[in-house]
Design a protein that fits this description.
Blueprint (H helix, E strand, L loop, with lengths): L1 H21 L2 H30 L2 H8 L5 H13 L6 H8 L5 H27 L2 H10 L1 H10 L1 H9 L4 H10 L4 H8 L2 H15 L1
Helix pairs in contact: 2-12, 4-6, 5-12, 6-10, 6-11, 6-12, 7-8, 8-9, 9-10, 9-11, 9-12
Length: about 200
């Protein structure tokens, strides 16, 4: 019985591998990885340039946000993460560096980003019930709609980890009526992404 299960598992894995290769998943993953490396490289270069020519980055951020309530910044972040990722989360990770406990704040930001993704999922689900709105969404992000059908949770995994519009991917996922439980599982990959960027920022600063 165990041998039969093993053989069936191997066959399933082989079929999945063939499907992913034929539908271009590995090419998409490679391009996403290259984009991640490029974004991290640009982030490092930008931080080093600012540090060298304009002084201490943390001091600059602190001065620019003088008088801003942390709750207001967090509210703006959550809104952004729920509505197509209007502001790059890296800026908020930089802001977290100015606080007394940056790691705790980055963890909070990561969890809020995860929650923002859930909000986007339900926005997408709501859009799916309105024909014209669904058409606009699918036309705006045709590749996401096609890929969630082809790859399922693997698209959410890649969008969570790599520099791909995560909120948009979550909306299309909801509109496609993808399993919510599976979405919650794959979306957890969003959290380590924040700590990867935190590590890069700490390395530079």
């Amino acid at each position: 019985m165990n041998t039969r299960n093993t053989i069936n598992s191997l066959k399933s894995y082989r079929l999945l591998n063939i499907h992913l290769r034929r539908t271009g998943f590995y090419t998409f993953l490679t391009k996403s990885f290259i984009k991640l490396v490029a974004v991290i490289g640009l982030l490092v270069a930008a931080l080093m340039f600012i540090q060298q020519h304009f002084g201490d980055i943390e001091m600059l951020i602190t001065q620019s946000l003088t008088g801003a309530s942390p709750f207001a910044v967090i509210a703006v972040f959550l809104t952004s993460e729920s509505l197509l990722g209007l502001i790059p989360p890296d800026l908020f990770i930089l802001w977290a560096q100015t606080l007394s406990n940056p790691k705790l704040m980055v963890l909070l930001l990561a969890v809020l980003s995860y929650i923002g993704g859930i909000a986007s999922y339900f926005i997408g689900k709501y859009i799916a019930s309105h024909g014209k709105m669904k058409t606009i969404l699918t036309e705006r992000y045709p590749n996401f709609h096609k890929r969630i059908t082809q790859w399922g949770g693997l698209l959410i995994l890649v969008a969570a980890l790599f520099p791909i519009p995560y909120s948009a991917a979550c909306m299309v996922t909801g509109a496609a009526k993808f399993s919510f439980k599976a979405f919650l599982f794959w979306g957890l990959a969003r959290i380590p992404r924040f700590f990867l960027y935190l590590s890069v920022i700490n390395f530079v600063l």
